[in-house]
Design a protein that fits this description.
Number of domains: 2
Number of strands: 48
Distance between the termini: 48 Å
Shape: globular
Radius of gyration: 29 Å
CATH class of the largest domain: Mainly Beta
Helix content: under 10%
CATH architecture of the largest domain: Beta Barrel
């Protein structure tokens, strides 16, 4: 670390001698109360500082002449003015007006959309990063809230390329690398204070990540002094939300406290069967010991239980007459019951020491511990028909693929099945009563249940340490650096949630049993405890731990001059992870129980950036970064449920990225135009699915994946008058694969030998996000505290997740190269482009010291119900007929017209 710091200082320290001494000073206060606003961001050109506890700020080293000053504070409208800098310091008294409730509670609108995610991998697609935005930048705020609601990903990056911190502690998941915002869902007020960095720009709290970084500041003394009640009503995922927040601010005795809590609930929103029941709590305390030292403590959690939505094929949507059909629920004794229920509570506690070593240097040290449980229920079955209503053999179209069936009988069966789907809920939804009847009948015969509900758990524990140093080495040179350490354990296992009227379950691999007959060893999930009888609450099926230790040091130097600013940063990190099996799998006797090999990786990165100030309003910035990162645990172990095996030739992910921007800032017009390119090498990706023909889980482990993400971002805001403004945002991307990776195909029950093939996907477009998106908006703010805004949004070039096996030689017809089936097998599935219209209106009042805010937001005003937001090709493929029509993609549709009504009272 010392060598890195010395090197950076050697490069940049001497440049500081050129700085001029023009200076701006001032105070930031609340327009209504007159109280000082601390931690407000004061920006002049590319320089920025934060106001102190008294609201005071000072920026030096400014060019003489006209300069635009922008002040940004959480919960307040942005303040902007133009001044003339000279040898005499300029003094500004900035009085900030409170934001409307619509702005303050906008996070709640996005929060509902994030909760709509229905993948079994909780958080996997939360890379929409709906809450990662930089105040004052119209592109990032629009991309996060307006476009992010329909799963637009900034620059096409997945969630592991956005870093999220809570009071300096990295909260990205240690296994999949992605932050799960649901862990602090419902705590809008308490987690409102943030410091966000776009892309690979300089950051004062971390080295950063490709897409950007956000640090959520929970420090009690920085919370606004208030008592606030909020109630919201919506028809999205939950119906009701109630929140309460009380914050003392820093009191005369040196203490500050904040408490916050909420509940979000509903029996079913836009999609039937998706109930929601979530609580949240937050406590933060801080004691100012003296002018140099403060101690802070934060604890929070968000216990949540909610039903999930599942994707289906277009055939099913057409059968039911709704693009929001949900196959996960059915009637039990006349009541709606969802088979797939997320249930989690992962609280976090953070202890922080704030040390102001002197006026120019601060050291912040945080120690955190997180723990809890994360479960997801699902149906399982043995020696019985598939209970899922949209299983392909339960659909009318399956009749077309029954060999030897006469045409007349096929047509009759299609009509019969179609009628049943359209008239009988026991056909179109899960028939819980039948499952109970089957199990009770078996119980009378002394046999095990055929149907159960299991709870798939991932219970995590993590100890984290973060040390952050921020120092002003001179009037125009700053140093930031730190150390991060995480010690992680993830316990993966299944428990018996419900025997559905039966009496017991036998802990054998039902899939292996179906294929391998009566082999007494191979069918055992745990050969150390063969044929174990399972009751409700027992662990069965699989049981293993993932361990991961990571350490990172980083440093950064920023230099500010009259015409050119620049920075450079570097990091070094070490990662070690391994698996420990708690069961001896019958097929993998020597490769499942006990510890695996420990996989160690040493990585690092460097980045640098430069800003050229054409004048006080026009700027050109350029940034570049080269780095490597240990592969995620999630994409390393091929089948961690059953064995210790990792992907072939496992290695670190590698990245290079660069961007260049033109920025214009005037009191009337603000704009940013950015071009960027990112290259990724040596990526891994693992997908698993159940193949009912082979009666086993099949694992596709791709390695050697290379990608390019490149494109243009544009954002502009025009103030037409003191009350009317217009915004325009556009993102034009080109995200594609640049290699033909290898795929290893393995079978959990050992019924087939492992095979390795080449996947021909070079130049395939990357799925999971619209590659083209845009938004045009109008905003009206009346002087008497009411507002209206509307946005027209466009989404295009969105593709389904593809089946890699369909892009191998094995999937090709033997009559190459002119077989007419080939394009259908190889070509990607592209979704239709679409538009939405969003609008909101609100009003705020002040009655003495009480502030009331009421706002209504309506998404998709025109009720567009044909916009597909995502989907995936099924992993099944008919190798005999080479037909793709039997297993068509499953898709998700964006909600039609929805609303979010919010009432807030603050005093």
């Amino acid at each position: 670390m010392k060598q890195i710091t010395s090197f950076l200082l050697f490069l940049f320290l001497g440049a500081g001698l050129m700085a001029q001494q023009g200076k701006i000073t001032g105070n930031v206060t609340d327009q209504v109360t007159g109280k000082a606003i601390s931690e407000a961001i004061v920006r002049v050109g590319t320089q920025q500082v934060t106001s102190d506890a008294n609201g005071y700020y000072e920026i030096g080293g400014l060019n003489y002449g006209e300069q635009t000053v922008t002040i940004i504070a959480i919960g307040f409208e942005n303040y902007e003015t133009t001044v003339t800098v000279s040898a005499t310091p300029v003094k500004i008294k900035a009085e900030l007006a409170s934001k409307s409730a619509a702005e303050n509670d906008r996070k709640g609108i996005t929060e509902v959309n994030l909760a709509d995610l229905s993948t079994e991998d909780e958080g996997k697609d939360q890379s929409v990063s709906g809450l990662l935005h930089s105040s004052g930048d119209v592109f990032t705020s629009t991309a996060s809230y307006t476009l992010g609601a329909l799963y637009f990903k900034v620059r096409g990056y997945d969630g592991e390329n956005f870093a999220t911190y809570m009071n300096g502690i990295n909260v990205n998941d240690a296994e999949n690398g992605r932050a799960s915002w649901s862990e602090w869902g419902g705590l809008n007020d308490a987690t409102r204070n943030k410091e966000s960095i776009n892309g690979i720009s300089a950051s004062r709290f971390s080295f950063g990540s490709l897409g950007g970084s956000t640090n959520i500041i929970t420090r009690a003394s920085l919370q606004r002094k208030q008592t606030k009640f909020t109630y919201s009503f919506s028809n999205k995922t939950y119906t009701n939300r109630a929140m309460f927040t009380y914050s003392t601010g820093l009191m005369k005795n040196g203490w500050a406290f904040t408490v916050s809590g909420s509940r979000r609930w509903g029996e079913g929103g836009y999609v039937k069967g998706v109930f929601y029941d979530a609580w949240a709590y937050f406590f933060s305390a801080e004691k100012k010991i003296n002018n140099q030292h403060s101690i802070g403590f934060t604890a929070y959690g968000s216990p949540t239980k909610r039903g999930q939505q599942g994707g289906s094929t277009q055939e099913v949507y057409d059968l039911t007459g709704s693009n929001y059909y949900n196959p996960n629920w059915g009637y039990q004794n006349g009541e709606v019951r969802n088979a797939k229920v997320k249930n989690f509570h992962e609280p976090m506690m953070i202890l922080t020491h704030y040390w102001d070593i002197n006026e120019k240097t601060k050291l912040t040290s945080s120690l955190a511990y997180t723990f809890g449980f994360n479960g997801a229920t699902a149906l399982n079955w043995y020696n019985a028909s598939d209970p899922r209503p949209d299983y392909y053999r339960n659909l009318p179209s399956y009749q077309n693929y029954i060999t030897g069936q006469e045409a007349g009988l096929t047509a009759y069966n299609i009509n019969l099945t179609t009628l049943a789907w359209q008239t009988d809920p026991k056909k179109s939804q899960i028939d819980w009563d039948r499952l109970y009847y089957t199990n009770k009948t078996l119980a009378l015969q002394g046999k095990q249940s055929s149907y159960i509900v299991e709870d798939r758990r991932n219970d995590q524990q993590q100890l984290s340490l973060n040390i952050l140093l921020n120092s002003e080495l001179s009037s125009n040179v700053k140093f930031d650096g730190g150390f991060e350490f995480r010690k992680f354990k993830g316990h993966h296992f299944k428990t018996m949630d419900d025997l559905l009227g039966g009496t017991y379950w036998v802990d054998i691999d039902n899939f292996a049993y179906r294929d391998n007959g009566i082999d007494a060893i191979q069918i055992q999930n745990d050969a150390n405890n063969p044929n174990r009888i399972i009751k409700v609450g027992d662990v069965f099926g699989y049981d293993y731990d993932i361990y991961s230790n990571t350490g990172l040091v980083w440093g950064q130097v920023q230099v500010t001059n009259d015409k050119i600013d620049y920075f450079a940063a570097a990091n070094l990190n070490a990662t070690s992870f391994w698996r420990n099996g708690n069961m001896r799998n019958g097929i993998n006797l020597n490769n499942s129980f006990g510890e695996s090999t420990k996989y160690n990786f040493g990585d690092g990165g460097i980045k640098a950036g430069i800003t050229y100030k054409i004048n006080g309003r026009n700027f050109i910035t350029a940034n570049s970064q080269a780095s490597s990162r240990a592969p995620s645990v999630y994409n390393s172990f091929v089948s961690p449920r059953t064995r210790n095996t990792v992907t072939a030739d496992i290695k670190s992910d590698k990245f290079w990225t660069a961007d260049i921007s033109y920025i214009l800032r005037t009191p009337i017009f603000k704009a940013r135009l950015t071009a960027y390119q990112t290259m990724m090498w040596d990526q891994n990706e693992i997908n698993s699915f159940y193949d009912d023909n082979l009666a086993t889980f099949v694992n596709f482990a791709m390695s050697g994946i290379n990608k390019v993400h490149q494109g243009i971002e544009f954002g502009a805001e025009i103030k037409a008058s003191s009350t009317v403004s217009f915004t325009a945002v556009a993102a034009i991307g080109s995200f594609y694969y640049t290699s033909n990776p290898k795929v290893n195909i393995s079978y959990d029950n050992g019924s087939q030998p492992d095979v390795t093939e080449t996947v021909y996907i070079k130049n395939f477009l990357i799925n999971g996000t619209p590659q083209t998106a845009g938004s045009i908006g109008i905003n009206y703010r009346h002087p008497k505290n009411w507002f209206f805004n509307a946005n027209v949004n466009y989404f295009g070039d969105n593709y389904a997740d593809f089946n890699p096996e369909r892009r191998t030689i094995s999937a090709m017809p033997y009559s190459l190269p002119n077989d007419p089936r080939i394009p259908g097998i190889i070509n990607q599935t592209k979704f239709d482009d679409g538009f939405t219209l969003d609008a909101s209106i609100g009003k705020s009042w002040q009655v003495k010291k009480v502030y009331v805010n009421l706002n209504l937001s309506v998404s998709n005003v025109l009720d567009n119900t044909s916009l597909i937001t995502g989907g995936y090709e099924q992993m099944r493929f008919d190798f005999d007929t080479k037909s793709v029509s039997e297993f068509i993609p499953k898709v998700y549709y964006g909600f039609g017209r929805t609303f979010f009504l919010n009432l807030g009272i603050r005093f």
